[in-house]
Sequence to fold (418 residues):
Amino acid sequence: MHPSSCDTFVALPPSTGTQHIIFGKNSDRPCDEVQEVVYFPARDYAADEKVECTYIEIEQVAHTHAVILSRPAWLWGAEMGANEHQVCIGNEAVWGRESADGDEALLGMDLVRLGLERADTAEKAVDVITELLEKYGQGGSCMEDESGFTYHNSFLISDRKEAWVLETSGKYWAAEKVEEGYRNISNQYSITTKIDKAHPEMKEYARDKGWWDGQTPFNFATVFSFMTTARIEASGSRYCEGKKLLEKSNGHITAETMMDILRDKDSGINMEGMFMTTGSMVSVVPCDPALPGVHYVTATPDPERSVFKPFIFVKYINPLKETSSPSYGADDPVKKKPRFQSKPDRKHELFVKHELVAAIIECHKVRGKTIMEGIRQLEKETMTKMEEILSHGFEEPDLLVDLFSTSVKKEMDVYSKK
Fold:
């Protein structure tokens, strides 16, 4: 079972036609994997505290930012998420000349969460992730089984003013700054000669390996890929298809545009099969720091049959119970060695209800159409309310502490009624 990885997108002014930055990602994972959506508040820590990531323990920092995460329920990190400072991060699997086989270390998904918890800007997130990569490395199985499925990672990171693409090969990396327009990443290296930050020994390492002659312009994708950049742009690749969909709406890319892209099955971006889109996220972040960002997350597979539900960072947010999977603590098979000897039930409440409804939509056309109309109407009404908040802000934050959970309950009510 070999995935084609995920797709992550960002659009900045003038591509959005507004003073909003739009971020979007589909998380493509094994079809039997549950993705949960969880919230962790900001927190302070003592000087000697540690944090247990998926496989290894690392030093904790003095303060972590509040985060919302969409993550495979068996691990510590996240496929995608945002923090209270409106930093958004999504990661992709990438493979190249450098072997991805190695000891258990930090997963790329751990690095997503660590970047969100520790950085208040996109550029600082690049620094956090690369420093952790240098200190601890990346490695370990990225699936909840004994297959030993491993990969390197690329990241798309945005905030209120810019975006960064960060691509890694082992401990080596390059980063590209994006200040306007649009950008997408998929499962291949995409940084070419525009390199705004890099590992200080990257070029020397590539020359020693015989991958670069030291004379021609340094092209990260050409040097570290199995293939040339021409292959990346090849017709039919999801990277290329995603780029085309962004170009089609260039100048007026909205949250709805991004959702439509994530729902697109003809391009393969909305993936079906043994690997499928198990969770999706779209964030709308105003450039104006006085206005809140709105982060829409599905917490369910197949965005075509899911509702994008809004989350806004305010104080005193309650736990997101309906999208939180059961916790098994020290008894979790992921924590015991040898790992992955069994798979516990990780389905959260919304997942269970959505799974049933998805089967009805698949098998009963009339009932399925009614359900789809209901969830689309709910989504449309909610997004209209969010547009008001994105334009004018809000005066009563207490009314938003259960925004996401209330939206989940409304979704489940639609399922019950239909």
About this structure: The chain has a mean pLDDT of 94. The CA atoms of residues 51 and 57 lie 6 Å apart. The chain is about 30% helix and 25% strand.
